[in-house]
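explain this:
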Amino acid sequence: MNSQILLFSLTLFALVAFIIWSLFNSKSSILKLMFDMHMCYIGRIREWTGLRDGRVYLVLFAQIAAAVLLAALAYFLIQNILLMLLVGYFILKAPLWISDFKRKRRLKSIEYELPTALTVIASSLTAGVSLSVALQSYSKEISSPLASEFAHVIRLQKVGVDFETAIEEVGKRIDLIDFQLLVMTFRISKSVGGNLSETLMSLSSTIQQKLAIEGKIRSLTAQGKMQGWVMICLPALVGFALYFIQPQEMSLLTTTLYGKIVLFICLVMAYIGHKVIQKILAIDV
């Protein structure tokens, strides 16, 4: 107990000393790196909450306070610094993980909707309507993430923003290569002209073929991805089972210094193996 408190105090002292050294060392780039990390984290919270003012710092303060309180509660219940740090880390990262999950799901929905939307817009252009009217008609008739982005383009145009600036603003919000191609198509059509409806139909066909190839790749790499998750979950399940079968022997992993080192090495190796498998199976089309 005393050794754990001493270790925690030394870690906290080293962190405070490091921050003070960074503040007084003007030539060091560590302080700038910490500031950039802070601004990146604030940007992620703004994306997660939708706030654009000082209230985002209230969310950050509430998140840090909850992490500290729950981590301290976990320490008093479990009496283990490693588990306390893990609890605090997961509490801090959980909102960002949820935000990333929702963002990826939204982008995936837009990606699969894009070919159909291009076909509808191209048909409207063939019928003789303008591009702005075609986008407005699609955004009113269909309730979807892509339709809401097209509606945002129309709203920007109504307040005086030109079409190219509006579509580029939406392109910054949607981090998809396919949508960037659509933005470039609109810009080229506005500057040099051409048969936009035929171009949109060709782009729709290309995106459909790309999605079909990505679907085949996902089906072929599903077994490898499952092996990565098994490599992460199976040792943990076996460890819990052995803990209930032989609690005295397995408790050495959390009560002794060498046991903690072995447990830490096992966790790091499992995490690295999972990331390596994900990197191997991440095939970009």
